């Protein structure tokens, strides 16, 4: 099932275009690093590595050295922020950007450009922190905007619970246009995570290993549902908050 659009009118989703552009530009950079054989090192450095974040936090709390606290603030947050715009496979970036476009543009309309950007970044950061906390022994890096996208889904379903999504059903070489309730894509989102290894970049380290930390991006649903009533600028009549 491939979502295409909802029926709600929206102005130019400038922030979404910007986010998609940044993600695609960085992914092109990743492809270049892959050709040079340095992509694994780059993703290990700038991806979310829970064990490394845990080690930095332990050093900071067990030492009176201010430099350790500066490192705790800068290094983990830097990697969590940048990992939000990095992806490990063609299927992951295409899936995330498609869901961002379909479900995000109506949220950008009711939040406004600035608030939507803040919503997106806060959701991604909080999900990343959750991933680091829930599996502190994981040594493999995690990358992708999965957490921010699930937050968008959570906020969308509370704002437009009865929305229908124009979709296409691919059957071999036939594409059938259908309308599907938005709620369906809540479960479909988690199903398609399994296929995000398709078109995986060739790197020596394992990225986005299917661990407890990886599936923690599902926390984005709760984060999005919590943030949207607090941040909404133009509350839809259909909203259930």
UniProtKB/TrEMBL annotation:
<dbReference type="Pfam" id="PF01694">
    <property type="entry name" value="Rhomboid"/>
</dbReference>
<feature type="transmembrane region" description="Helical">
    <location>
        <begin position="171"/>
        <end position="191"/>
    </location>
</feature>
<feature type="transmembrane region" description="Helical">
    <location>
        <begin position="12"/>
        <end position="29"/>
    </location>
</feature>
<keyword id="KW-0812">Transmembrane</keyword>
<feature type="transmembrane region" description="Helical">
    <location>
        <begin position="71"/>
        <end position="104"/>
    </location>
</feature>
<keyword id="KW-1133">Transmembrane helix</keyword>
<dbReference type="GO" id="GO:0004252">
    <property type="term" value="F:serine-type endopeptidase activity"/>
</dbReference>
<dbReference type="InterPro" id="IPR022764">
    <property type="entry name" value="Peptidase_S54_rhomboid_dom"/>
</dbReference>
<keyword id="KW-0645">Protease</keyword>
<feature type="transmembrane region" description="Helical">
    <location>
        <begin position="140"/>
        <end position="159"/>
    </location>
</feature>
<feature type="transmembrane region" description="Helical">
    <location>
        <begin position="211"/>
        <end position="232"/>
    </location>
</feature>
<dbReference type="GO" id="GO:0006508">
    <property type="term" value="P:proteolysis"/>
</dbReference>
<keyword id="KW-0472">Membrane</keyword>
<comment type="similarity">
    <text>Belongs to the peptidase S54 family.</text>
</comment>
<feature type="domain" description="Peptidase S54 rhomboid">
    <location>
        <begin position="80"/>
        <end position="233"/>
    </location>
</feature>
<protein>
    <submittedName>
        <fullName>Rhomboid family intramembrane serine protease</fullName>
        <ecNumber>3.4.21.-</ecNumber>
    </submittedName>
</protein>
<keyword id="KW-0378">Hydrolase</keyword>
<dbReference type="InterPro" id="IPR050925">
    <property type="entry name" value="Rhomboid_protease_S54"/>
</dbReference>
<feature type="transmembrane region" description="Helical">
    <location>
        <begin position="116"/>
        <end position="134"/>
    </location>
</feature>
<dbReference type="InterPro" id="IPR035952">
    <property type="entry name" value="Rhomboid-like_sf"/>
</dbReference>
<dbReference type="GO" id="GO:0016020">
    <property type="term" value="C:membrane"/>
</dbReference>
């Amino acid at each position: 099932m491939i979502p295409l659009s909802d029926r709600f009118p929206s102005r130019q989703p400038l922030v979404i275009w910007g986010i998609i552009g940044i993600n695609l530009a960085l992914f092109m950079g990743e492809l270049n690093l892959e050709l040079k054989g340095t992509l694994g090192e780059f993703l290990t450095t700038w991806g979310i590595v829970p064990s490394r974040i845990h080690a930095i936090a332990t050093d900071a709390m067990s030492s009176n050295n201010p430099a350790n606290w500066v490192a705790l603030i800068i290094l983990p947050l830097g990697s969590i922020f940048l990992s939000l715009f990095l992806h490990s496979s063609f299927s992951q970036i295409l899936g995330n950007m498609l869901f961002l476009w379909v479900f995000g543009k109506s949220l950008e309309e009711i939040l406004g450009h600035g608030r939507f950007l803040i919503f997106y970044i806060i959701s991604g950061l909080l999900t990343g922190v959750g991933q680091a906390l829930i599996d502190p022994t994981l040594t493999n890096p995690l990358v992708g905007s999965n957490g921010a996208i699930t937050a968008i889904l959570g906020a969308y379903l509370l704002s437009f619970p009865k929305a229908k999504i124009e979709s296409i059903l691919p059957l071999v070489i036939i594409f059938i246009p259908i309308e599907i309730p938005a709620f369906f894509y809540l479960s479909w989102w988690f199903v398609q995570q399994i296929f995000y290894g398709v078109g995986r970049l060739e790197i020596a380290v394992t990225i986005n290993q299917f661990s407890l930390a990886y599936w923690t991006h599902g926390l984005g649903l709760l984060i999005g549902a919590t943030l949207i009533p607090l941040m909404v600028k133009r509350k839809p009549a259909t909203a259930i908050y």
